[in-house]
Amino acid sequence: MTATHESAELKQLIESARRLGIEIDEAESQEWLSAITAEKDGDDIEIDRESGTFGYRLTMLDFSPKDLARFRRIGAIVEVTGEGAESALALSGSAAQSKIQSFPGDCDYFQRLNIKAPTREEACAAMARLMRDHVLSHAQGPTYQFLEAKLGSYASAGTVRGEPVKEGYPVSWKLDEIREKVQIFTAEDGTRHELHWDEVALDPGWSKLDWVVTDPERGALSNASNVIDVTWESPDGEIVALDGYLDTYFQEVYLDADQVPTFQKVAQHVSDDALDEYVEALEGEVRKYLTHHLNYGKAAKRMYNVFRLSGRHLDAAFVRELFDEPATILYQVWSLIGTLENATQEGSSIPIEDVQKQADALVLEVVEALEGDAETELVKSLLQLRQTLETQKSGEQRTTEVEAARAQVINLINTFYRDRLVSRPTIKDYIDTIQAEAEQPGAAH
């Protein structure tokens, strides 16, 4: 597509969006389109010397360093470090797109943890030790509360802590289980088995750590997660992913330019087909959030990345604007919902008063950001949710009233994002195709 043709189509997009009440900044969008389509020779990794960050060139276009101090402060809570390991810590998800997402939902991190060891088994043992030591030393503090770890996979279906688990799913560890290095698993035939932390680490699968963190300056709570891609570097310099797959780097902004050597050493082994595989994985998530786990906001975020990486730049520019307008405050509502879920887990030390304050602030922000029926309904639902929190106690399972109010808020946000996405015909066709395929006999669920 020529620049002139693209500019003409951008003007049409802006005019149709404006009729729907969506304001698109033409100059900013044209600048972004020019940057994303520009050919660049050599390395696709860009280093921002001023902020000390680096990442994939197209990802860096959407990153703003304005909250960098906060992200580095939380990063110190979630990053696993220790003797014999090299680290490169990055933001991922909406946090890595802070230029367009003024109100990212959670603080999502991604870490490359490269462990030098004589054998793979010793690398797995080192990973298990480093993760456990980090969790125990960061279990709870004035600004954070550890939630759970993912390490290993269930060999069969059964129950854990009275809840069903499926074969192949990541093993989810609570703090006391990590401390004891044992989890009790009940098989479908009723027999009880012990899962041992060090043993499941030999086949680690998807490794992840989760916290709830509070930001005293903002007076807000967020979920903070760290997905850890662990590699083993053998004595002869070979680098192997312990879970069998080396993750791509197309949605990461690394927080410390001094970690470039570690990143480059590991990332050079990423598959040549990595970009195609990444887009395919993203489309799998889009499919999930448009069908069996309906969430148009999460689907929109993933659609943006699919579109910008697969050449659908005008569709990407449209979705990009959905997260650049005041309505992005809705993602703060998602954050509140997630924090509420964690604050009302049994034994949580997160003060319910902090959740109440966050709900109060959100009501005011929604009033300022939205207009018309959307504002009226959402404010009404948020106020109802806020009222249910009056009788909620810290560390107490949330009541049916809180759950009902939460469901109503989620439904309103879904409708809000769906209406805007389907207003663009090419995106509507994309959504309709995915949803129609899901209805076909034999479609995967």
Protein described:
The chain is of the alpha+beta class. It has 2 domains: 213 residues, no CATH class; 226 residues, no CATH class. Helix content is 47%, strand content 20%. The protein contains 16 helices and 15 strands. Strands 1, 2, 3, 4, 5, 6, 9, 12, 13, 14 and 15 form an 11-stranded mixed beta sheet that branches. The chain has a 4-stranded antiparallel beta sheet with strand order 8-7-10-11. A hairpin with a 2-residue loop joins strand 5 and strand 6. It is globular and about 60 Å long. The mean pLDDT is 84.
At a glance:
It is globular, with a radius of gyration of 23 Å. The chain is built from 16 helices and 15 strands.
Topology:
Blueprint: H1 3-19, H2 26-37, E1 45-48, E2 53-56, H3 57-60, H4 68-78, E3 85-92, E4 107-116, H5 120-137, E5 140-141, E6 144-153, E7 158-160, E8 163-165, E9 170-173, H6 175-180, E10 182-187, E11 192-196, H7 197-200, E12 207-215, E13 220-233, E14 239-241, E15 252-254, H8 260-267, H9 274-290, H10 296-309, H11 313-322, H12 330-343, H13 352-369, H14 372-388, H15 400-421, H16 425-439
Parallel strand pairs: 4-13
Antiparallel strand pairs: 1-2, 2-15, 3-4, 3-15, 5-6, 6-9, 6-12, 7-8, 7-10, 10-11, 12-13, 13-14
Helix pairs in contact: 1-2, 9-10, 10-11, 12-13, 12-15, 13-14, 14-15
